[in-house]
Amino acid sequence: MWSKCRGITLVELILAIVVIGAGLAGVLVAFQTAVRASADPLVRKQMAAIAEEMVEEISLRPFAATPNAAPAPCARDTFNDIDDYNGYNVVGICDIAGNALPQLADYQVAVAVTNANLAGLTAKRIEVDVRMGGQRLALVAYRTNWAN
To answer: Of the candidates 103, 77, 102, 90, which has an alpha carbon nearest to the alpha carbon of residue 130?
Structure first.
């Protein structure tokens, strides 16, 4: 008598490999998408830090306009009041003395300072716009003439 051997055929084995391969490919695509997007929070945090630093730097300047010398292209070392920052627009982040930071060369910063009225108070509206790739972060702050 012949005993029946139990096992899998070659067709079943090939079919199993195809099904497992397709499932693994789907998982790898999902993993690749997740890994690619994992840097986005870091970019957003860096953009927020840049914007907050600029708003703080501008807010600490005197409210009243005073004459100053023109700065070097990226520098802000001669800015001596809030209005000097209006129209500041650079690609690549620089420190206040104008030294480029190579790690942040892909970021762009634009600043707009306009007059505002807050319930009868004279104020300045400070808008800092930071861009990186296709992402944008805008931060708006107000500064009154509290020093006088």
So the answer is: 90
CA-CA-CA-CA torsion sign (70, 73, 78, 84): positive
Q: What values do phi and psi take at 7, rounded to 5?
A: 175, -165
Q: What is the pTM of this model?
A: 0.69
Q: Residues 6 or more apart from 95 whose CB is under 8 A from it?
A: 101
Q: What is the mean pLDDT of residues 58-87?
A: 86
3-state per-residue secondary structure call for the chain: CCCCCCCCCHHHHHHHHHHHHHHHHHHHHHHHHHHHHCCHHHHHHHHHHHHHHHHHHHHCCCCCCCCCCCCCCCCCCCCCCHHHHCCCEEECCECCCCCECHHHCCEEEEEEEEEEEECCEEEEEEEEEEEECCEEEEEEEEEECCCC
Whether the pLDDT of residue 2 is over 70: the answer is no
Tokens 């003395």 belong to 97
Rounded Cα gap, residues 75 and 47, in angstroms: 19
Nearest CA among 100, 99, 96, 94 for reference residue 80: 96
